[in-house]
Amino acid sequence: MKQRLRAVLNEIEVELKNATTRGKVADYIPPLAQVDPAKFGIAVMLHDGTLISAGDAQEKFSIQSISKVFALTLALGKRGDAIWHRVGREPSGDPFNSSILLELEKGMPRNPFINAGAIVISDILLSSHQPRETIGEIVRFVQSIAEDDDIYIDEVVAKAEDRTGFNNAALANLLKANKNLDNLPPHVLGVYHHQCALAMSCEQLACAGLFLSASGRNPISNHRIVSVERALRINALMMTCGHYDGSGDFAFRVGVPAKSGVGGGILATVPGIASIAVWSPGLNQHGNSLLGTRALELLCRRMGWSIFGR
Ligand code: GLU
């Protein structure tokens, strides 16, 4: 299987290298507009610790909304199922940054992976701490699950989003007005924008997500990160809500739980088999990596990895 996987990753890298349609890099966060759209990396980590990668898989990029998976995991660990009184578990069918449903549904975000829901999760993590402490806690958590200390926040990206994230400020204010934030919007947004600015490579991300493909336990260190039930549920949310209003199409084409970010990364899990991270900065109309999705579609088809059968 490993030999086949290595060959498939190389094939995909070659096939996508010269693609002329690569999507559009996110330019609403100024530093992300500077990222080279020709970059492409992919890494797969298997349960015996084998890491197979191709392309720019060791280069760090802004993980953006992929961080919502880690923040949710941390919040569930602190507050358990009580978080579901403040955020739902349904796909929104709306763009990632939409405020339409939030207003109609009185400040209860549809799920933790759209911006409004992730801002509520940041508020839960902030609880009564200082934003700095919470940001440090998130970084340490991601370092621990990736078993890698070389993971940090890109302050340039975080500050740029703090300066320009007016849409997120609107969401935070709407949440606060509806009594679904305990802390002040600027403090919550500071945490949220910093977590989004985590810089990681595909190889680091594949390691960090491995527990989700192994029922909540790191299969290499044997370290349990979440309960079996919780891991299954996080995967279910990734499957149904991980690609915003493109989640149905992603499930249709790729067929594994995954979470995207506007930095062009996608973290995917193949339950019982592997964790995958891919990066290509150009995005499709839903804000999901265009070639990253294509790469996962090819990989899961060629390896027979859809969770829906083969
Ligand atoms: N920091 C980004 C935002 O709030 C995350 C969006 C994403 O990656 O989908 O707009």
> What best-fitting shape do the alpha-carbon axes yield?
globular
Please name the fourth-level CATH homologous superfamily of the largest domain.
DD-peptidase/beta-lactamase superfamily
What is the CA-atom radius of gyration, in angstroms?
A: 18 Å
Total domains = 2
Which CATH class of the largest domain is shown? Alpha Beta
Q: State the strand order across the main sheet.
A: 2-1-8-7-6
Please report the number of helical segments: 13
The end-to-end distance, rounded to whole angstroms, is 16 Å
Elements, N to C (H/E): HEEEHHHHEHHHEHHHHEEEH
Organism: Pseudochrobactrum asaccharolyticum
GO molecular function, one term: glutaminase activity
Subunit structure: Homotetramer.
Enzyme class: hydrolase
Can you offer a commentary on this structure?
It is built from 13 helices and 8 strands. The chain has 310 residues and is α+β, with helices and mostly antiparallel strands. The chain folds into 2 domains: 2-62 and 201-303, Beta-lactamase, CATH 3.40.710.10; 65-198, DD-peptidase/beta-lactamase superfamily (Beta-lactamase, 3-Layer(aba) Sandwich), CATH 3.40.710.10. The chain has a 5-stranded antiparallel beta sheet with strand order 2-1-8-7-6. A 3-stranded antiparallel beta sheet has the order 3-5-4. The protein is globular and about 55 Å long. Glutamic acid (GLU) binds next to loops. It catalyses: L-glutamine + H2O = L-glutamate + NH4(+).
